[in-house]
Amino acid sequence: MTNTNTSGSDAVLRCVDLRKIYILGEVRVEALRGINMTINRGEMVSIMGPSGCGKTTLLNIIGSLDYPSSGKIFIEGRDVSNANEKELTEIRRKSVGFIFQFYNLLPVLTAVENVELPMLIAGVAKDERTSRALELLEKVDLLNRKDHKPDELSGGERQRVAIARSLANRPSILLADEPTGDLDTETGQSVLKLLREVNRTENQTLVLVTHDPNIARQSSRIFHIRDGRIASIEET
Ligand code: ADP
Ligand code: MG
């Protein structure tokens, strides 16, 4: 991976002409048709668009969960588009944190164990990961639920555990795919409030997919996606 961030800007993420074509037998789906976006450190942006327009594909590619068919991705100026498997694992582990609509917590682990998991995978020593996990649970106001398993938590509480987990390895970028999509309006707002707090107090960059205009309005820019392209960028 080469460092190509010579522009002097503080871009934490840059996508250049990203394209993704899925081929399933005879069917070709052009999920992304040339996405260009630059997101600065500490920014909070939203991605909106109808179902099937490519939002999840884009987030997964930014987060190195999937490869683009062509185009480039720079994270903190590093070209990650040509990274090998080992480097990709490293990027997933250290540079990005994921928050999903349905939480994706491990059901057999307690809240604190779920938050510790990314640190365990990254090889952080037991004492350090437990103390960091407890600190994060305190930040999301769930210290009193640390020994609860996911099915002993409400939806909003599960998502707060997932937010704590996403922060575990201090990623450059948080990627959230409809994080309030499974929650009622009020709980969704409190989860969003927490994400905004993390965005502000930790200068944590946040890229958020949402269907909710009230949520999108709270970010600095809204990328409207249509058919795999950016149709417009709205400054809020
Ligand atoms: P969104 O998140 O905006 O609803 P997606 O990114 O999930 O949209 O999907 C974009 C398009 O790509 C859709 O037409 C979808 O059917 C297709 N698609 C998504 N994932 C795959 C896949 N793994 N294989 C084939 N087609 C896919
Ligand atoms: Mg989606």
Offer a quick outline of the entry:
33% of the residues lie in helices and 29% in strands. The chain is an alpha/beta fold.
Secondary structure: elements and pairs:
Elements: E1 11-24, E2 27-40, E3 44-48, H1 55-62, E4 70-75, E5 78-79, H2 85-94, E6 96-99, H3 111-121, H4 126-139, H5 155-167, E7 173-177, H6 185-201, E8 205-209, H7 213-216, E9 221-226, E10 229-235
Parallel strand pairs: 3-8, 3-9, 6-7, 7-8
Antiparallel strand pairs: 1-2, 1-4, 4-5, 9-10
Helix pairs in contact: 3-4, 3-5, 4-5, 5-6
Bound molecules: adenosine-5'-diphosphate and magnesium ion.
Residues 22, 24, 29, 31, 49, 51-57 line the site of adenosine-5'-diphosphate.
Report what the structure shows.
This protein is an alpha/beta fold and 236 residues long. The protein has a single domain, classed as P-loop containing nucleotide triphosphate hydrolases (Rossmann fold, 3-Layer(aba) Sandwich), CATH 3.40.50. The protein is 33% helix and 29% strand. It is built from 7 helices and 10 strands. The strands form 2 sheets. It has a 6-stranded mixed beta sheet, with helices on both faces. A 4-stranded antiparallel beta sheet has the order 2-1-4-5, with helices on one face. The longest helix has 17 residues. The protein starts with 10 loop residues before the first strand and ends with a strand. The N terminus is likely disordered. It binds adenosine-5'-diphosphate (ADP) and magnesium ion. Magnesium ion (MG) binds next to helix 1.
